[in-house]
Fold each of these.
Amino acid sequence: MKLAISGKGGVGKTTLAALLAQAYADAGRHVLAADADPSPCLAGALGFPDELRKQLHPIAEMDELIEERTGAKPGTRGGFFTINPRVDDIPDRFSVTYRGVQLLEMGSVDLGGSGCICPESAMLKTLFTHLLFRKEDVLILDMYAGVEHLGRATVDFVDAMIIVVEPTRRSLGTAAQIKQLAQDIGLSRFWLVGNKVRNADEEAFLRNETPDIPLLGFLPADLKVQEADRLGVPVYDHVPALQAAAARMIKDLDAR
């Protein structure tokens, strides 16, 4: 099961990524979660202790490693460098594991348009491809709205893209844009998850207004999500309703 989770900033995609990762881990699955957000915060949502979080560093910011593997300094444009650097040792070497979830921080690169080629982007694209070919039971990719790191050669290995939305037209409009971007590189399997849903009316709104994306489920609005962040504890433990929703989602995903 390889899932790419996307959505507009602030809708709760990292919360969903943490919930699904821990739910799969608690179900006995081997889980690798990759945080590809420009501001990595999946470790916090998973409740990783400070001593483990200090060991995490975004791969995109490891200048010496990038230069060693590609033959060019980060920030370089043009020139010669390896576009398929060695990355097979990176997931195990630079990840940390807590409560059955192995976590890797990818970081991000300002690609400057689809034609941009630089050592950092070559490194991340190759690493994404490697992750998709690994044999973990479950791979969770916590992404931002763009899909630049998912190339045409790898889309067949993503079981689905899950797009997180709030019950607003603006959020659904962003979901439609993400779907179009993903379809442009060949992705065809999508799920919609409604987050911060307060009542049956908001559920009905998402069901009726979905941009032709099937609904996987809903996460109820709960102020304890913010409380979990303040306390530095896993949202999965702190909000039982969200834990139950995640359990239903992984059951449905496995059934399909």
Amino acid sequence: MTTPTNPPRLGYLLPTRENVMRGEHGVRNLLDAARIARGLGFDSLWVGDSLFARPRHDPLTLLGAVAVAAPGATLGTAVLLSALRNPVVLAQQLATLDQICEGRLVIGAGIGADAPPVRAEFAAASVPFERRVGRLVEGFALCRALWRGEPVTWEGRWQLQDVTLGPQPHRPGGPLIWLASNVDAGVERAARLFDGWFPIGPDAATIAARHTLLLAAASEHRRPPATTAVYLTVCIDTPDNNPEAQIDAYLAEYYGVPAPAMRRVQACKGGDTEAVMEWLQAFVRAGADHLVLRLVGNHQRALAALAEQRHLLG
């Protein structure tokens, strides 16, 4: 295991999916939560992505509002299903959003789980599910070409002839792109093609082993080490309120499958602040530079507890 030379950055996932599940379709409380987290010192604010497999707000539109509500924060998608989107349109959207947040945009991107509701999303968007990896890779390559502000001719899944896109992103070269993957091939792809690796679990030991693979792949391809950001689910509460049981109930409702199945692929921890911080430390020792936290239970109380004890992370 390795320890990052700098303290890890701490991120908060806004509860877009949870609000829609409760029938709360407005965004005011989401923007208030973003302000609270930023005021407590959280470095980054994140939103998820889904059409109807797990219905929620459009991530890019919402992040534009978050940029204004919580200035100075890094903004990110956790994670964007970029293959559902035309990359020319997406390049313009992301460049505009990067200008709004003045270069603090990070695109966490994934291919989506192989599950019937996710396959239905791809079918509804007229996108072949089996070809989503290639669409993601080529789509972002095209975005990056368009972000250079020079005429682009492209012969591939998309056909462009000497076109120039505006605006250019605020960050030269465009937003950072972190690839979400829990398999070795995805780790290698993140090191070779992207700026970061963004796994969801399942535990610190697995992250440590794949982080070693990430560093080796970056060295092989003569690229700087990619950022390692880990997506983690935590519930901070007293033993009397059984925080682990709260997570199980949350996972079952959120995904519509038994909680044990989700825990096999997602890293989750319930406990008091001390127990959760000790658990988070293991991911930092495994090589995580950035912890993106999805909270279960009382968000405001958890945010305050995490902010108060974040010095323990390094």
Amino acid sequence: MSHFIRPCPSRKDESTIDTMVYIEKFIKDLHPEKILDIGCGDGYLEEKYPDRITGIDIEPDRVADLKTRGLHNVQVGDATALSFDNHSFDMAIARDLIEHLHIEQVFAMFRSVLRVLKPNGVFVITTWRDCQIFWDKVDHIRPYSNKWVRNLCRYGMPDFDIYFEKELSAGIPLFGVLKLTWLAHLLADKFKIRVDHGIIVLKKK
């Protein structure tokens, strides 16, 4: 049995998670032909969009596990030193990843993503605020909020513009048990309950 560094949600739950709903909306609306999924985890996107997405993960055991499921669009890779040619992708995604990196690694990842994105390509990032639920996860290093990413672009990464940003809620406890996750997120978003993470999309100039 493989032991992974980062736990991932079950694939069957992925489509209902708020951040994934937004990511799939961007894929639908922006029609990117080539997408890089950084820290692909359990391979939900790679399985759903096999002809458009290349997934990388730093954990060899996780990549090997994905390949046993028939996913050949995945490979071992480091977010801070992407091994792809310049201008290779229309979109890059870093979902549930940035919080696992030290600050110097985040800077390196942004530079690497900037290099492999085509002009006008977009970088979709999910973020966390500083809150107790964040620190309760043993594999988290530090939170990076939407505001932090916005400030990074303003003062250190001027080749990115902010395309979209939204604060998101973790939902409402027990709604998941009742299979009402969609309603929990809808209500939590409307009434600003448990706002602890977000999504921010950057566009390369």
